[in-house]
Amino acid sequence: MEKNKEKYMREAIRLSLDKMRAGYGGPFGAVVVRNGEIIAYGFNQVLASNDPTAHAEVDAIRKACATLQTYHLSDCELYTSCEPCPMCFGAIYWARIRKVYYGNTKQDAAAVGFDDNFIYEELKKPRQECRIAMEQLLPEEAIVAFEEWSKNPHKSEY
Ligand SMILES: [Zn+2]
């Protein structure tokens, strides 16, 4: 088992190198593993796709969910070449991934220009004090969709 963990991590690391060299984006790779099998290969594509959300972990989660036709990956593990950023951290929780292994730390990432610590700091602040302004608007109209959702007996809870 120990050997396999290293094998999966080496795949994530290989992707981080190969796809960075090919110009897709930053040096980040990830794989999703289920029952000892890699079911999705993800890599950073922020530059190539002009998509700031195209991080390796999100890419791998999307591909794994598409392959398994599910929105939960509770029987899966994620191997990522770097400790997840706050966005991917959230995606991992939404996907209910069982366990995450990472190679580089966020401190390693910060040292080469990928510093996400400011986002962790922003998350702790009241919304009104965040660097990007956030203001509530039309709550009495927005709530209608929530009321309809909560009353629907046929909804799929997730
Ligand atoms: Zn990320």
UniProtKB/TrEMBL annotation:
<keyword id="KW-0378">Hydrolase</keyword>
<dbReference type="GO" id="GO:0006152">
    <property type="term" value="P:purine nucleoside catabolic process"/>
</dbReference>
<keyword id="KW-0862">Zinc</keyword>
<comment type="similarity">
    <text>Belongs to the cytidine and deoxycytidylate deaminase family.</text>
</comment>
<dbReference type="InterPro" id="IPR016192">
    <property type="entry name" value="APOBEC/CMP_deaminase_Zn-bd"/>
</dbReference>
<dbReference type="GO" id="GO:0047974">
    <property type="term" value="F:guanosine deaminase activity"/>
</dbReference>
<dbReference type="InterPro" id="IPR002125">
    <property type="entry name" value="CMP_dCMP_dom"/>
</dbReference>
<dbReference type="GO" id="GO:0008270">
    <property type="term" value="F:zinc ion binding"/>
</dbReference>
<feature type="domain" description="CMP/dCMP-type deaminase">
    <location>
        <begin position="3"/>
        <end position="115"/>
    </location>
</feature>
<keyword id="KW-0479">Metal-binding</keyword>
<dbReference type="InterPro" id="IPR016193">
    <property type="entry name" value="Cytidine_deaminase-like"/>
</dbReference>
<dbReference type="Pfam" id="PF00383">
    <property type="entry name" value="dCMP_cyt_deam_1"/>
</dbReference>
<protein>
    <submittedName>
        <fullName>tRNA-specific adenosine deaminase</fullName>
    </submittedName>
</protein>
